[in-house]
Amino acid sequence: MSILVVAEHDNRELKPATLNAVTCAMEIASYLENPAIHLLVAGHDCAAVANAGAAIAGMGKVIQTDAAFLAQQLPENMAPLLRELAGDYSHILAPASTTGKNFMPRLAALLDVAQISDVSAVESADTFVRPIYAGNALATVQSSDQVKVITVRSTAFDTAETDSDRVPITSFEFCLEQDLSRFVSENLSVSERPELTSASVVISGGRGMQNGENFMMLEKIADKLNAAVGASRAAVDAGFVPNDMQVGQTGKIVAPDLYIAVGISGAIQHLAGMKDSKVIVAINKDAEAPIFQVADFGLVADLFKALPELEQAL
Amino acid sequence: MKILVAVKRVLDANVKVRVKADGSGMELANAKMAMNPFCEIAVEQAVRMKEAGQAEEIIAVSMGPEACQEQLRTALALGCDRGILVTADGEIAPLQVAKMLRELVEREGAGLVILGKQSIDSDNNQVGQMLAALAGMGQGTFACGAELADGRILVTREIDGGEQTVSLELPAVVTTDLRLNEPRYASLPNIMKAKRKPVEQLTPVDLNVEMDSNLKTLRVSPPAERAAGIVVQSVEELVGKLRNEARVI
Ligand SMILES: Cc1cc2nc3c(=O)[nH]c(=O)nc-3n(C[C@H](O)[C@H](O)[C@H](O)COP(=O)(O)OP(=O)(O)OC[C@H]3O[C@@H](n4cnc5c(N)ncnc54)[C@H](O)[C@@H]3O)c2cc1C
Ligand SMILES: Nc1ncnc2c1ncn2[C@@H]1O[C@H](COP(=O)(O)O)[C@@H](O)[C@H]1O
């Protein structure tokens, strides 16, 4: 049987989360007979993405569906497209990004199957592990559905390699007219820094930062470490920084080589988004803060003193 | 317009739970339960729309054990007009919740359905999207803004790169993110009044929904513990450790 991976992209670039989903697909494929992995690139003017996808090692082919109505990958358009393709596949995977989480359950309902969210390990072709209760537990689930619709927790899988042998790109025509939903506008953050979910170093600030201006102190350190900057929910709710910086159960899941939590207490909902980081550093003035229970290196200090020192020392 | 709001009974967000020793689930006996926080935001959104004269009636729906009455009463105290309780044992799969909601949306002729984006226990993030598919409606998930305009609804969504706004035909499905609003507390008089508001009781059979899911939980296990770390005395020591021991900078 074949596995379909849905590419995460913005019509220009293939996003790294796709490569993690491909690795998950390869793990599933190891339990299947004659498996093939296909990549779907659905978007508008997305040839560059299809080309990048064609270079992923282990791919059988790339299917490109290029149409104006797919430019934003709205779920009202993506789910019917995927339903059209689903007959050929035993598994359909997408990264558990806000895009994948939006259209995959819609697809599953159209197919009358369950959806498996945030898969973090593969036990066999039908058995998967996923975190529940904000990562306080891991559930092992088994699906008897004909098509398994899965979103993949990117941080739990390595990135697939790319090689120079390119697989063929075929185009799949799909038309749909619907007025259930229309794209109106987008307000995207622009940043020179690496993306939060794929950066190898992340430095995050919490309520302890006191205001948005103070995040400059984190930015300066991020510059030196080529790091992404994240935040706790409290920092986002207080308006210090935009919401796409939130790390946690309901924000982004990150697992960098180094995560530095500054002025963050370490609530379970925050830990859910970063506790799989390789090395965790906590800087907090309260020695009792729960963040120290997960930190490899804890520094009990006033952040307003520690951050300038850290910047100097790097 | 009628608004249907889905409220789930979950473990209170502030309670730390353990996995049962036999791996069959979580230790929930006697644990404090509450309305899923995202559902509180959904209720608040519906109440604000009614207060703004945009809706005539709000119906709160909960599915699960008899005890979901508590969360329905909370929803009624917050301003919902009546409740529907669908009693069913055990964890109900998202597809089954969505199918029952679809049936209720049809029965009630709801013009808008508001749900939380995610249950904080099962962390599925699915029901709203599935309901929208089954009911043939547009979906505005992870909403941080929702405004009725010209017979449609404008939903601003929290997405990975920032925000996105979509315009949906009504009826539509909206799922709430944390920053859509700040839920109010129920006042004592409203809690008293809520006791007299009607709650209809149904079963999955009444809604013609087969409860078997093709997704079975085989076991639940605790996550790997992180090894205890160390406390460093200075920034200098920290940088030394990161450079020479951990080698991450
Ligand atoms: C449904 C739900 C979902 C949630 N999802 C998320 C999520 O995705 N992500 C998330 O982060 N949270 C989430 N939360 C919120 C979470 O429960 C906590 O409230 C939040 O993480 C707290 O943020 P904080 O650590 O920045 O603030 P606080 O808990 O207020 O901690 C601030 C810390 O800063 C320290 N500090 C203060 N001043 C200084 C100083 N000068 N120097 C050094 N240290 C200092 C204090 O000692 C304290 O430990 C969620 C909550 C709910 C109910
Ligand atoms: N048993 C339930 N009863 C009522 N509403 C539910 C139930 N399960 C899920 N929901 C709704 O669906 C939303 C998303 O849940 P989920 O897809 O399970 O993460 C919740 O916030 C509720 O609004």
Distance between the termini of chain B: 58 Å
- What is the number of strand segments of chain A? 16
- Fraction of helical residues of chain B: 25-40%
Question: Could you report the average pLDDT of chain B, rounded to the nearest whole number?
Answer: 97
Question: What share of residues are in beta strands of chain A?
Answer: 25-35%
**Widest sheet of chain B: strand order?**
9-8-7-10-6-1-4-5-11
Please provide a brief summary of the model:
The complex is a heterodimer of chains A (314) and B (249). Chain A has helices at residues 17-29, 47-54, 75-86, 98-111, 215-225, 233-237, 268-271, 303-313; strands at 2-6, 36-43, 61-66, 89-95, 115-119, 121-122, 127-132, 137-143, 148-152, 169-171, 181-188, 201-205, 228-231, 258-262, 279-284, 297-300.
Report what the structure shows:
Helices cover 25% and strands 27% of the residues of chain A. Chain A has helices at residues 17-29, 47-54, 75-86, 98-111, 215-225, 233-237, 268-271, 303-313, and strands at residues 2-6, 36-43, 61-66, 89-95, 115-119, 121-122, 127-132, 137-143, 148-152, 169-171, 181-188, 201-205, 228-231, 258-262, 279-284, 297-300. Chain A starts with a strand and ends with a helix. The model of chain A has no long low-confidence stretch (mean pLDDT 97). By secondary structure, chain B is an alpha/beta fold. Helix content of chain B is 27%, strand content 31%. In chain B, strands 9-8-7-10-6-1-4-5-11 form a nine-stranded mixed sheet, with helices on both faces. The chains are: A alpha/beta (314), B alpha/beta (249). The interface between A and B is large, with 91 and 80 residues. The complex binds flavin-adenine dinucleotide (FAD) and adenosine monophosphate.
